[in-house]
Amino acid sequence: MKAFEVTDNYSIDSLALIERDHPKLSPRQILVKMRAVSLNYRDLLVVNGIDNWKPPVGRVPVSDGVGIIAEVGNEVTTLVVGDRVAGLFLPNWIEGKLTPEKTVNSLGGKAHDGVLQEYVVFEESAVIKVPSFLSDAAAATLPCAGLTAWHGLIEKGNAGPVSTVLIQGTGGISLFSLQFALMIGAEVILISSSDQKLELAKKMGVKHLINYKSIPKWEDKVMEITNGVGVDHVVEVVGSDNINRSIEVVSLDGTISVIGLIDGFYGNINTAKIMSKEIRLQGIEVGSKEMFARMNKAIEVNKIQPVIEKVYSFDDARHALSSLQKGAHFGKISLTF
């Protein structure tokens, strides 16, 4: 079977397309023939060998994908051949709060191969069925981007119909957050550097749009829109010192969900304002299987369609990752087999 592996050069261009033996199953495992995968910023950190995300040579990258079960072990009881499933980003986080034991073996990272290969073996408990009305390319976007957005805004953020939500950018997590916020009736403010992307967001139902290139002090515009109160919830995808700008626009007793790190891993943060404004600054780590199930139900009931910029072929994975790295996409980038 074909698979992409990280090489010792740690770059997109040096990803190696190789042939691997077909994996064998233990009694409680399943073999999934992959149909589609979807890319996340974290995949770039893995492939390029950045900081704590640097994997061993030979690692198969990419965490998010969907496929059809081709074979089941003789002790598997909840799944059958032909079921369409997605792998869990954190296969040990089935339910409850996050614990150290539940953070290990994340797909496509330092400790475990990912899904950029034709066949993948999963433990029976480490997959979940996906909504049948979604295409393979769309369903593949759910395990990381979809679930992280759901966790941050709905599960841990407790956003509701009277909430005002500021969303930064138009990548996968940002647009899922946008869709979930509109789903619950929240008021959405979206910032982007592209008028074209803002126009696309307008067509999705967003009323308050700010181009942060033409309005560098976008914080003032956010405060104007909210009549000086600030927003109830910020979906913070930039990280680093940008968190200070989120602190400026969040309301008293508001929430900032730190979901992305595209501007850096460290920053000088105004802790005094976090205290004086009683801000909840919360980190969001993807989510559990039980959260995934609740998200799937909401997606099915509301017929939410993930936003996909482009679908590449599996063999064109390097070009797909390069496109992600340029950061010009609106929504998700997927690959089909």
TrEMBL record:
Give the Gene Ontology MF terms in alphabetical order.
oxidoreductase activity
Which parts form a coiled-coil structure per UniProt? none
Q: Which InterPro entries match?
A: ADH-like_C (IPR013149), ADH-like_N (IPR013154), ER (IPR020843), GroES-like_sf (IPR011032), NAD(P)-bd_dom_sf (IPR036291), Zinc_ADH-like (IPR052711)
User: Start and end of every Enoyl reductase (ER) domain?
Assistant: 10-335
Domain of life according to the entry: Bacteria
Q: Which Pfam families match?
A: ADH_N, ADH_zinc_N
CDD domains given in the database record: MDR7 (cd08276)
Designated name of the protein: NADPH:quinone reductase-like Zn-dependent oxidoreductase
Species in which this protein is naturally found: Mucilaginibacter frigoritolerans
